[in-house]
Design goal:
Elements: E1 6-14, E2 20-29, E3 34-38, H1 45-52, E4 60-65, E5 68-69, H2 75-85, E6 86-89, H3 101-111, H4 116-129, H5 145-157, E7 163-167, H6 175-192, E8 195-199, H7 203-206, E9 211-216, E10 219-220
Helix pairs in contact: 3-4, 3-5, 4-5
Length: 221
């Protein structure tokens, strides 16, 4: 698909020991599109996100982010692409405990060489956008699971990535907060011309997507 933010073609992935997760997986995501990926536990939804982010390697097939084939990149260049062009909301949050919330959220900007003062201001604005206004100087130990989820989402969006990968982004949130966070994810995707994949078990979360796909060993349908 010409102009796709993400193109997957013929992906195959097996686990150590030989269990097939999926084969023949193909997907194109246009700018501004939001796709929900559903499926049974253990089918490989989180693994698929890790493949797209270049954190894992497929057995076969092609992954292109903004036309760049991940397989053609060195480890260092893949790290730079992931840092600059991909926003990842991990299920395990990965909030660094020794940094303040503002420092955690600003990390993608700082790693890209952004000015410290500007990065800090943008981080505090993003924290406010996810309902954590005035919490920039707090630390992860002071947060609930839902609050850490919101910090992770703020960090994923701060650098206006081309591709947003969200692994159960509302899993620790109450329904009202989940609705607001999903609206923020969709709005950020559409306004910046990015594309987003939301992996979820939640029917309500999946409803915000343009397309809802189910992952199985035969691919996405």
């Amino acid at each position: 698909m010409s102009g796709a933010v993400l193109s997957l073609a013929g992906l195959k992935k097996t686990l150590p020991g030989g269990r097939l997760l999926f084969d023949g997986l193909t997907l194109d995501l246009a700018p501004g599109s939001v796709v929900a990926v559903m499926g049974e536990s253990g089918v490989g939804k989180s693994t698929l996100l890790n493949l797209i982010a270049g954190l894992d390697r497929a057995d076969r097939g092609d992954i292109l982010v903004e036309g760049v084939a991940l397989a053609s990149l060195s480890d260092d260049r893949r790290t730079v692409l992931r840092r600059d062009r991909i926003g990842f909301v991990f299920q395990a949050f990965h909030i660094l405990p020794h940094l303040t919330l503002a420092q955690n959220v600003a990390l993608p900007l700082v790693l890209s060489g952004g000015p410290a003062g500007l990065s800090s201001r943008q981080a505090r604005e993003m924290l406010a956008a996810v309902g954590l206004e005035g919490r920039g100087d707090d630390y992860a130990a002071q947060l609930s699971g839902g609050e850490m989820q919101r910090v992770a989402i703020a960090r994923a969006l701060i650098h206006r990535p081309a591709l947003i990968l969200a692994d159960e982004p509302t899993g620790n949130l109450d329904p009202e907060t989940a609705e607001k966070i999903l609206a923020l994810l969709v709005r950020a995707t559409r306004e910046s011309g990015a594309a987003a994949i939301i992996v979820t078990h939640s029917e309500r979360a999946a409803q915000v997507a343009d397309r809802r796909l189910t992952l199985s060993r035969h691919g996405l349908a």
